[in-house]
Write a structure and sequence with these properties.
It contains nine helices and nine strands. The chain is an alpha/beta fold.
């Protein structure tokens, strides 16, 4: 019998704490599959954030450090500079990266630190109860915007890839989504591209992953996937935002 599915070596057997329908499990698996395919597991060091993925170190079968809130790129920078032959990535949510960690990610990109950043955008603060995030859509109802985000008082959603694209040091910026099998495969390719750019010592890369959050969107898992395609992707268009690493 032909084997068509098996757990990546880069994942542990632990059951995750993520909510049903959450995209973090898919993102973890994609990263693990790429690490297996590139045969770099013994060289990889991840940096986990504060946020829903705070326990990511329990799920990966390689070294993972924990950082203070928003400081993930700084920790990854230190590890990479001390151990330049290792493959280092940070894994962050939109609260960790686009709110308290804004300065960290901007300066890491501007310095073109030779790290990979995997940025999971679900437009809310998931770990703390579904409050408005910098990426929350206009009109989106959250715990702190019960009538919907209003541009005049809270601004527009921050588009991280577009924001970083003006920095010379940001070499590769890609936005994908976990809404369909086709989109998931494209995210996996972008993750692999990011690691290969780092291996080639070409500098900073970031893959933004639009991910479902059924719990705090108040939708079923299936409705959440449809919500991504019908709503989020009109604000956060998919594809390669920048690539000067070719």
């Amino acid at each position: 019998m032909r084997e068509i599915y098996k757990k990546p070596e880069a994942l542990n057997d632990n059951i995750t704490h993520y909510c049903p329908g959450c995209g973090h499990g898919i993102a973890h698996r994609l990263i693990a599959e790429v690490i297996d395919e590139l045969k770099i597991r013994e060289r990889v060091i991840g940096v986990a954030p504060v946020g829903c993925a705070v326990l990511a170190y329990n799920y990966f079968n390689f070294d993972v450090a924990e950082s203070a809130h928003g400081r993930t790129p700084a920790v990854a920078t230190g590890i990479k500079r001390a151990l330049p032959d290792n493959i280092v990535f940070s894994y962050q949510g939109d609260g960790d990266l686009a709110a308290i960690g804004t300065a960290e990610i901007v300066h890491a990109a501007n310095r073109s630190e030779n790290i990979s950043v995997f940025f999971v955008n679900n437009t809310v603060y998931g770990m703390t109860g579904g409050q408005m995030a910098p990426t929350t859509l206009e009109g989106q109802k959250t715990l702190t915007t019960p009538s919907g985000r209003e541009k005049g008082t809270t601004g527009s959603p921050i588009k991280v890839c577009e924001l970083l694209s003006v920095l010379e040091g940001a070499r590769y910026l890609y936005r994908g989504a976990l809404s369909t099998p086709s989109n998931i495969l494209k995210v996996k390719k972008a993750i692999k591209d990011s690691f290969q750019i780092q291996i080639a010592k070409k500098g900073f890369s970031l893959v933004e992953i639009i991910s479902p959050c059924p719990t705090y969107w108040g939708l079923t898992p299936l409705e959440s996937l449809q919500y991504i395609d019908n709503k989020l992707l009109k604000v956060f268009p998919l594809g390669e935002i920048k690539n000067t690493a070719r």
